[in-house]
Amino acid sequence: MERATTTALAPERAKWTAFVELLKPITWFPPMWAYGCGLIASGQPLLDRLPFALAGIALAGPLVCGTSQVVNDWFDRDVDAINEPHRAIPSGRVSVQAALIFAIGWTCLSLLVAITLGTWVTIAAIIGLALAWAYSAPPFRLKQNGWWGNAAVGLCYEGLPWFTAAAVMTAGLPSVHTLSLALLYSIGAHGIMTLNDFKAIEGDRQTGIRSLPVQLGARRAAWLACIVMAVPQVVVIGLLLGWAAPTAAAIVTALLLAQLALMARFLTDPIRYATWYSALGVSLYVSGMLASAIAVRGLLT
Question: By CB atoms within 10 Å of each CB, which of 26, 59, 103, 153 scores lowest?
Answer without folding.
Answer: 26
